[in-house]
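Message: Just now I want nothing more than another pair of eyes on a protein record. I am handing you a single protein, as its sequence and its fold in token form. As I understand it, each token names a local backbone shape. Take your time, and here it is.
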Amino acid sequence: MENRDKIVVLLAGGRIVQRQDGSELKDEELYALLPEDVKSHTVFQQWSYQPVSNYTLRMCGELISMVRGYVHDEGARGVVVTCGIPLLAELSYFADLVWDLNPPLIFTGSIFSAGSQGSETSTRLTQSIRAALSGSCTGKGALICIQDAIYAPADVLRISNFNRAGLLAFPESPLGVFSQPSGNYISLRFPRHRYIQKIISPLVRNIPIITASLGDGDVILRALVDKKFEELDGLVISGLGDGDVPSSWVPHLRKLVRADIPIVLTSRYPDGIVQATENYEGSASQLLEIGLINGGMLSPYQARIKLAVGISAGLEGSSLSDYVAGRQ
């Protein structure tokens, strides 16, 4: 088979493989950007070049199924996925929750278009392929190759859409680095333990995120409760500080909990954590007491993806809460 013992580079879009006019680089152009010792190990495969704003969780699930086929059915040694930077952290985090195979799965991207000044296409592709070939990324789940290092998706926060150096913030140190921009991969540590879920039903999609802000009203929550809450699969609350919300939100949240709608409470801070330190109307302490799931240090975006995966894996009640909260 064409893909046996190769690193499959799945082109799922992103500026890393697109010119400024939006056209995609051809396979021969991409091969020309790779060092000679890497070319023979690499096969390019096309997927979707849709804007990241059109992606759904179900599309992401289809992508992972395709990647699994390359490895499980066709014997690929590993897979590198290119994608748009706005989707990089979330897509790789989703993949990390469901990737149950040992071969490496590495996501990469660039804020600069291929061929433009400052383009990182050659460097990022070379680094990702070298890391996949190294053997050091085997059994570590889905990974991100960015800024001359390899990171676990759970450790990544995006903080800029234009600054190469400040594109991502990292609460944890990298899993590994490269000796030179296109040099060998050096492993530094293992990622945290992951709980892999097997999806048994189509990925749910109706899990909105509602963010609290200064002087916020309850119009969105009231609309959900009064009109369409039966269509909700779940809900994520991005609360102030420790996870607090306006007091006017509490009756609506209580009604949703009574209707068995799973709700995850998170902090809106990029590196925040839910803390039940005070007890008043709308406090995190009260919200957890009425049945919201403690999202801990999950970002609102991670919480939404993890809740969707848990529901689609058939988890309910305390099993779903334990999974999202990281207790299983």
